[in-house]
Design brief:
mainly alpha; 4 helices
């Protein structure tokens, strides 16, 4: 079966089960967020793990990075001021 169709069917079944077992109304976004929490996309998780490992390696090698307020200032300057 197509992997996308399989994930869609899994979400569909999760949503039906969750709606039938919940006493409080839920939005589609809430259902999807909850489903993603328990069924993460392995490609995204793998990418996140690589990024975290790279960051830890940089930190251990002495990289100091950039302060959040300085980064925000640079991003605003670059993207809001042209």
């Amino acid at each position: 079966m197509n992997p996308l169709l399989e994930r869609l069917n899994q979400f569909h079944q999760f949503a039906i089960d969750r709606i039938n077992s919940s006493h409080a109304p839920m939005t589609l976004d809430q259902l999807y967020d909850e489903w993603r929490l328990f069924n993460p996309d392995h490609h995204e998780v793998d990418g996140d793990a690589v990024a975290i490992a790279d960051s830890l390696s940089d930190y251990r090698a002495g990289a100091q990075g950039i302060a959040a307020d300085e980064l925000i200032r640079k991003l605003k300057s670059r993207h809001l001021n042209g």
